[in-house]
What we know:
Blueprint: H1 9-14, E1 19-25, E2 34-42, E3 50-54, E4 58-62, H2 64-70, E5 72-73, H3 79-90, E6 95-97
Parallel strand pairs: 1-6
Antiparallel strand pairs: 1-2, 1-5, 2-3, 3-4
Amino acid sequence: MRNKGDQNSEELLMDDDMTRVIFRRWPESQGGGIIALFPDIPSDHAGRFCLSFEHVGQHGGADYQGLIRITKPVRERTEELEYLKEELRGRGYNLRIMRRRGRLCSQ
């Protein structure tokens, strides 16, 4: 049996039918938009970066620790957040919304 660190991104998306996601807000000086972080899905072979999603830029890699330092948690329900969640669900994600990550991706 393989551990999660050996799984590829597609397998992680389907693991337990839920994909853990953390929503963070950029500072107003950087647009104030919301970014979705997928801490269990590495975006590079070394596992340094995790997958992220923004409406503007779509999927990309993200430095989880760096983003946690410069962004704020999304605590309020806004139209922007609901739109982003619906967009992700429309792409096939079954979201499990988290406040912080577990032990994967850039431990």
